[in-house]
Amino acid sequence: MASFPKFPQGIARPFPDQPAPSSSDDDDATITPAAFIHRQQVAQKGRGAVTNLRGRYESVNREEFDDGWQPLQFAGDGPTTGEEVVGTEQAHTTDPGDQDAEPPRLKTIVTEETAKSIISRNASPDLPFSLSLNPYRGCEHGCIYCFARPSHSYLGLSPGLDFESRLVAKTNAPELLLRELARPSYQPDTITVGINTDAYQPIERERQLTRRILQILHDCENPVALITKSSLIERDIDLLAAMAAKRQAIAAVTITTLDPVIARTLEPRAASPARRLRVIRTLAEAGIPVSVSIAPVIPFVTEPDLERVMEAAVEAGAGQAGYIVLRLPWEVSPLFRQWLQAHFPDRAARVMNRIQDMRGGKDYDADFATRMRGTGVWAELLQQRFDKASRRLGIDHRNRAFATLDASRFRRPLLVPPARGGQGKRTKNDQLDLF
């Protein structure tokens, strides 16, 4: 069996023409920029990742190059069987003679999946919830820092551009949820929707999986928590307001910075910071408890905005706030380094040095006790800044929103839809009536 050089947390070497680390390196070693950045990093308009970095389970590496004989075709130019192209972007070829041509825009391709299960359970001591649900795999928002990017490796896809352009819709998610709630063994508890990938990303506008999920939770009176960067959540205020009146719904809006230029490169297809503040105001006015999630805090990029984000969010109606220091698990680390080189080459080394100061000298430490806030003097200073701003603004910063939700009114559904056939198509006998 062929052996491959070890990289931190199993990261495969992105560019095989670079020397591998010595055999004495352990699994906790830190990737240096030279290990994967050996060319000019060029960002694509409307996308967060700079490259289609291979996943950690891939045994081979492929790179496109122009041999000068024909126009260069880019990976992912067209869908395969069972895939749907969304949006108006058109793939095109580049002129081999035009050295300044803009890279072609990637089309967003959506694959339908008939999932086998839908509710995920966790026992993480640093999370305020134990049940979560994600109707989509991948996220078109394209946030470069997204901790869910490595999950695309399990699909044989890249955590880079594939994560934000090759999406999967779990078309039977509402039916699976209904069947789960109907089980006698199900113990009612808050279900957090969209914690891995945003449940209100652009494809939700047409597919409405999140809307159908919320309708079921509303009818069963099962508490729900939502976190998003999208204004599309305003579409479901009718359901959320009714649930909030019975202490069955809370929402959080993520705002990393108030600078629209930084936000456009950091979260290229999410709503602008100003629009997200309007979402907070709209939700608050509808009586829905809303908090602001300042996640992640990136040193020297979004970190200077910490207090300003809190002030703006509170003025808009946020009643709680929380923050998370940048997390760089698995392939997110090299992807983020590439993004830094493309957008902030003047401060890239400084940013990574500060991150490693808060992670014990590494890009990331997954220890439950420290992964959200970091350690060391800089992490302590950040915590002090957050605590002082919270007290000055008079908001709750102890993450107690989940404790206010009430699951005592839960009504178990009596009728559930039959399992879908192998093709994942609905039948005429599908029954979605609950009571």
Structural commentary:
Helix 8 (306-316) packs parallel to helix 11 (377-393). Mean pLDDT is 83; it is low at 1-38, 88-99 and 422-433. The chain has 435 residues and is α/β, with parallel strands linked by helices. It is globular. The protein has 11 helices and 11 strands. It has a domain at 104-404: pyruvate-formate lyase- activating enzyme (Alpha-Beta Horseshoe). The chain has helices at residues 161-165, 173-182, 204-207, 209-220, 237-244, 260-266, 273-285, 306-316, 332-343, 348-357, 377-393; strands at 83-86, 108-113, 119-121, 131-133, 136-137, 166-170, 191-193, 224-228, 249-254, 290-297, 320-325. The strands form 2 sheets. It has a 7-stranded mixed sheet with strand order 3-4-7-8-9-10-11. Strands 1-2-6-5 form a 4-stranded mixed sheet. Strand 8 (224-228), helix 5 and strand 9 (249-254) form a beta-alpha-beta unit. It comes from Herbaspirillum frisingense. This is DNA repair photolyase. InterPro entries: Elp3/MiaA/NifB-like_rSAM (IPR006638), MJ0683-like (IPR040086), rSAM (IPR007197), rSAM_sf (IPR058240). Keywords: Iron, Iron-sulfur, Metal-binding. Residues 1-32, 62-103, 416-435 are annotated as: Disordered.
